[in-house]
Amino acid sequence: IILNSMHKYQPRVHIIKKKD
């Protein structure tokens, strides 16, 4: 759920987390 919320506020951060 947190990742989903972050994706809305910071989509770029979500991509970085997925990459890591």
Automatic annotation (TrEMBL):
Pfam families: T-box. Keywords: DNA-binding, Nucleus, Transcription, Transcription regulation. InterPro entries: p53-like_TF_DNA-bd_sf, T-box_DNA-bd, T-box_sf. It is found in: Nucleus. One of its GO terms (molecular function) is DNA-binding transcription factor activity. Residues 1-20 form the T-box domain. GO terms for cellular component: nucleus. One of its GO terms (biological process) is positive regulation of DNA-templated transcription. This is T-box transcription factor TBX20. The gene is TBX20.
